Every structure is written in structure tokens, then in C-alpha cells.
Records
---
Amino acid sequence: MSTATASPNEITLPKPEGLEGVVAASTALSHVFGEEGRLVYRGYDIHELAGKASFEEVAHLLWIGHLPTKAELAAFQSKLEANRELPPAVIDVLRLLPDDAAPMDALRTGLSALGAIDSEHFDETPDLDEAIAVAARFPGILAAFFRLRSGEQPVKPKAGHNTAQSYLYQLFGKEPEARHWKPLDTYLVLLADHGMNASTFTARVIASTQSDLISALTGAVGALKGPLHGGAPSKVLDMLHAIGDADNVEKWLSNALDNGERLMGFGHRVYKAEDPRAEILREMAETASDPAFFKLSKLTEDKALQMLNERKPGRRLYTNVEFYSAAVLAAVGLPGDMFTPTFAVSRSVGWSAHVLEQVRNNRLIRPQSQFVGPTDKKFSAIESR
Ligand code: COA
């Protein structure tokens, strides 16, 4: 990895605000009430939906605006099912990737390939049919790469599966057990949308230029990949493995903080109270994960919160969604490098719902920058510089 050093001529820039507090769009899809620690999807508190509504019901809610009736859900599920299979040419592109490529890179590549290969289908103004067609293929792209990298052939999706079942079936090639697909289904519900987060903003900016849906989603995947956004849960797992046992928790965390490192799975731009998804995932992890692993996670969480509170007083740093995502997704049988891609499977619905909302009420998103450089330099010929 290369580290960039500032040239001596570099102008010192003011501390960036990162658009904190700036309202970048109006949306009726979801909202994070940061002070209260609440998340709402189209009027429903996340506690109303988690463990009660399926991921498909929530996708219907976000895309179409209401929870489906039985008949609507059946029709909606058939539409998703009909769109799951990947064009063979997309699988051929995935075959070209090295086995050690990051799954998020494979997803970004597979999506981009889907857009190019099926360009007639996806090059129009984004609409609901396209949103369904792309989101339905996220699991297949990831699963195909997952199998190819270990020398196995992709498995075609099977009729009668919901998204969580289909994802696990395409990954592992066998009928998923309820103890795996049910917590995964709830996880997918929890992560489906989250206000104006970085990847959603990325998708909306791209959509605002009248670009296509796949370009918007490909950009969003790139934004989600970073550890300050969706890339944290595998790092949470790395942290817990590095800590190893209860006696090492305090020493490990203290060293990390002394070295100026961030503790993965803590802190949030908007939440100044506990992330409600973390609370639900903690309960799920307690039931689903290995008891020793849960005990270590809980001990690490408690100690980290205490130390962050002592070292960063007034910052109000709490556990975020990523901390217990790690335990839940590991219990579902996924390896660490598939955690962020699984987040993307869920968020594909939120991203595309935002793109549709942007397209319906569009104006190019084009902010300003504050210019802090000089404006009066004179050109000198190369020989005299
Ligand atoms: N560990 C240690 N310190 C943290 C921290 C963490 N996880 N999160 C924030 N802080 C500290 C920062 O060092 C900063 O302290 P300082 O002002 O004394 O320098 C202060 O809290 C505010 O941080 P800032 O980076 O301005 O907050 P932000 O709103 O820009 O960042 C996150 C939000 C999520 C990027 C940040 O909390 C973070 O990096 N968390 C760890 C990564 C993570 O869990 N990502 C998943 C997010 S869902």
C-alpha cells in the first residue's frame, strides 16, 4: 500500500466538515433520528418490522410505498424469482477475476458487466422493473464469485426461495437451514435503508446526472466498501480474533486507542444514542452465535464503550450496526470477507428506491466547494521553473 505525503507546496486545508448536518435531498423512504436512536422506514419504526416482516415485504414497502397484501407479496416474490438468474456472460466475466479478488470488487465488476451485457434492458431511465431486476441479481453475482474462487461451479437459483434462502443456496449449493436463513432475513430487513448515508448519497448523485441505474448502484457499492461506512464488520471480526480472550480485552483496546486507531463497530455520524439496529443484532447474536464468541464480543463492547467515553468525553460514541453484524453473519455461516457484500445485498433495495425517488423529482446535484488556493499566479516556461 502506498502512503501519499503532502508536497511542501501543499496548502493546509481547514478541517473538513464532511457535509455534517447538511440536508442533501428530501426523501420519504427512511430517516435516522440520531438523538433518539430511532430508524424509520416509510413511517414504520425498525422495531415494528424486524423479526416480523420479511425482507421481501420491506423491499415492497420501500420500492412501492406500502406493506404488501398476501396476493401482492406472491406476485412480487415471483417477479424477484424470475429475475435472479445471471446472464452466462456475467459469469464468464467473474471467471476472469483472480481467486483472491475482494468480493466487493467482484460485486462491483459483476454489476458493471451486467449493465454492459444487458445494456438494452438497463440503459433506460431507471424504473421499478429495473430496480427489481438488478437487486434480484446481487446475491447471484456474489455467490457465483464465491464458488468460482474455490474451484466450484455457480449454482442456479431455485424456485420457492426467498432472498435469504436463495443467497445461501447459491453460495453453498445446499438447502439452507432455518437457523441460518431466518436470522439472515432479519439482518437484510435491518440494513435495507438508512437515510442519506454515503453510498445512498453516491447513488443519488449519479442518478441526478440522468445516468443509468447500474451506474448508480456500482458507484454505491464502491462507497459502501470503505471501513468508515460498510467495510467495518470484517474488521470487527479481525479485532475480536486478535483480542482472542477475555484477559486481553483491556490491553488490546488500550493499545489500539493509544496508537490513534479507531475501534471498528463504534461511533456514528448521526446516532448520538445507541443505533437501534445494534440493539436488535445484539439480541440476535446472543441467540445465534457461539456462546464463547458472544461473551467475548459483549465484554469487548462494554470495555470499548467505557474507554471511548473516558477518552473522548462528550463525543457520545455508541455501538453501531457493524459490531454485532459480525457475530450474526458469522453464525449464519458466512466468512468475514462476505459481510460487507451481504450488507450490499440488503442495501441494493434502499439504493434503488432512492434512485427512483431522485428520478421522479430530479435536479442535478452539484454542490459548491470553498476555494482556498491562490488565484493570481503567472505562467513561467518549463525551462525556467
Ligand atoms: N474509535 C475511536 N475514536 C472514534 C471512533 C471510534 N470508532 N469514532 C469516532 N471517534 C472519535 C474521533 O477520533 C474523533 O475524536 P477527536 O475529535 O478527538 O479527533 C471524534 O470521535 C469524532 O469523530 P469523527 O471522525 O469526526 O466522526 P464522524 O462522524 O466523521 O465519523 C464514523 C463517524 C462512523 C466514520 C466513525 O465513528 C468511525 O470511524 N467509526 C469506526 C468505523 C465504523 O465502525 N464504521 C461503521 C460505521 S456504521
Note: The two ends are 32 Å apart (CA to CA).
---
Amino acid sequence: MVQYDTLLIRYGELSTKGKNRKDFIRRLDQNLRFALKQYPELTYSRTYDRIYVHLQPDSDIEGIRTKVSKVFGISSFSFTERVDSDLEAIKARCLEIAQEKKEKTFKIITKRHDKTFPLNSDGINRAVAGVILANTDHTVDVHNPDFVIRIEVREGSTYLTCDKIPGAGGYPAGINGKVLLMLSGGIDSPVAAYELMKRGLKVEAIHFASPPYTSDNAKQKVLDLASMVSEYQGAMKVHIIPFTDLQLEIYKAAGDPYAVTLMRRMMFRIAEKVAENNRCIAIGTGKSVGQVASQTLESIACINRVISMPVLRPLVCMDKVEIIDLARKIGTYETSILPYEDCCTIFDPKNPVTKPTVKKAEYYESRFDYEKMVQDCVDNDQAVIVKPQEEKESFL
Ligand code: ATP
Ligand code: MG
């Protein structure tokens, strides 16, 4: 058994250089420490292409593994055992590890970073494989081995492991600026949050609630979803916007077919103002192109017209099945399908227009003083900070 004492984090060959690379590493380091903050016994060090987390003998390997697998910017990681960078020490330990394996075939994969080490990677592979072949029944299979021993030789320390665990990939959350994501209680928008975070964006959320037509359960569901996705970035600010009054006026002014279009246009106007007030440089939504009312391209165009801030729609070309698979993977699916109505389902019109025009939308909007109502919504923003896992929120 490899006696885990060091968690080795790889962030691969970065395409970023210079200052960007420094920022990347600094932010990754910060996010990693934040993700592992419940393990105060851990200590950290880093080189230009690795972060090392120094474990204690009683460290909770499974718990740490779960946390680390959610940190964006990590290409892969391994729980390793440190030995001195000395060929005899490496050979001896690799032999012991191999002797305990019941499986038959093996392969040695060496990465020699320390160019002063007397053997190159291939030389180390041969030397270690040689001692295993001479002292066990194992045989080498370079194509389809039953087990692999990885050896990473650094100045002074060498790290041995049998596993290489895929990381979450992407960029460290928060490195690429802040987005205000429109978060409903549905399946799509939490997945959109995950995709945006994966691109290194910090996500804040805005949710439109229409009490008493929508219940406290519906709001709690949104906060629970926010808490789940915040695992990927740390605490998340969620703006809850009381939307009832404006929504009722929309229905009076526009009637059935244009109500959804106007409602979306108002949501965008409010979101843009909240974004500006909170230093977000784009809006995000879980929208994908489809066939129902507000999903047609005409509809997206008509809704988008009211704001100038860029709108990021990470799911725009994804199939529902792919979105559901991702929702399952990040653990939001079961909560998303809970049957609490959100503001859109309550006021669901019977015959929504599928190809709205800007002209008609503007005509209906001219029938009431929406600007003041939009501003009221912004002023009555109830922001909540949602944290990973622990369902604690503190009102701002
Ligand atoms: P979702 O599963 O995310 O609810 P959907 O498939 O139901 O998406 P729509 O109802 O058309 O599609 O919503 C599209 C997007 O509009 C959502 O992904 C979300 O970004 C935003 N949205 C809808 N309703 C709300 C709401 N009450 N509060 C905040 N954003 C919302
Ligand atoms: Mg929805």
C-alpha cells in the first residue's frame, strides 16, 4: 500500500503565461485552501507546476478527495507517498508496493523533473521494473497493465502513487470576473452556474420571486440549489427580487400572448441594474434554444434588446439529456425536480407568442410606467449569502 502523506495537485501545461499564470496559480491555491478549510491540519507548498498538500496520518482521504475533485483549475491529482530522491530508496519502496499487489501485470511511469538525477525517466522505469521483475511474479504490460506505479522525481523529494484522479478542469473560479446568473428553481440554471464557474467566472445569482403566488418552499429550493453549486466556488451572493407587483402589471398591460416576453424583458432590465451595482460584467442564464415560447431565436433576440450588457448562455446549444446528465453529476437534479412552482409557471399564459417582435413588445410596455417598478424591484433586492453545504445564510 502506498502510505499517503502528500497530495499532489497538477494543473497541467497552462496556455497562460506571465502574470496570468501567476494569477491562475495564486487563485487556485486560494480556492483549494478554501475548499479544504475544514481540515486545518493540512499544510501547503507549491512549485511552478504543482501544489503539494501535506497530509497527516489520520487525514480523511475520502473527504479530501471529494472536496478537491470540485476545485476548478486542477487537471488531475494523486495521493502519494514521499521518499527521498535516491534511486535505491525509490526502488525499495516500489518493490514493497508491488509485492502487496495481487494483480499480475504492471507498468512504471516516471516523470523526472530533477534534471540532475543520475538516470533519465526511461532509465528509472527500467531500473524499478527490473527490481520488481526479479523479486515478484509480476510481468510488465505497457498497454493494458493491471496496476501502474507513477514516480515523480523532484529535487530532494520523489512522489510515488498508483492512482491519477481526474480533476474538475477549467479555470480557478473567480479569476475571470463576475457574472450575475439568473437562477430559477429549474434544472438548467444551476447547471449554467457550474459551467460559468468552470470558465473561471465568479457567479452571483439573481432570483425573481412572486410571493404569495410562489411559496417559501420555492425560495428555499433556489437557496438550496445555490448552496449546492457554491461548492464549486465558495460562498455565493443570491439576490432575491420581489417581482409580484411588476408581474401583475405586465399581465394587465400585455394580456396573454406577450406576457412572457415582457416578463423576460423586465427581468433583464432589473438584472442589468443589479449587476452594475454589484460589479458584475455580464448576465448569465440557463436558456437553451428550443421550441417553446421564450426559447425561440426571435424571442431571445426580442428579450436581449433591452440591455447592453453581454449575456452568457452556456447551455444554449446543449440537449436536455446532456443538461440532465450534468445536473445529476453536480448533484442538483433531485432538488430541481421538486414540484415547487416558480414565478414563470404560475403566470404561465395559454398562448404565448413564439415569434415576438420588438415593436409590439415596446407597444405593450408603453402602456404602463414600468421604469419606476423596475427601480422598485432593484431597491427591494434582498441579498443573501449562501455557503457550501451548511445551509446557513446571513442576511446582508
Ligand atoms: P430552468 O430549468 O433554468 O428554469 P427552463 O428550461 O425552465 O430553465 P425558462 O423557464 O425559459 O427555461 O428559463 C430560462 C432561464 O431564465 C432560466 O434558466 C433562468 O436563467 C431564467 N429564469 C427563469 N425564471 C427565473 C426566475 N424566477 N428567477 C431568475 N431567473 C429565472
Ligand atoms: Mg424554469
Note: The mean pLDDT is 92.
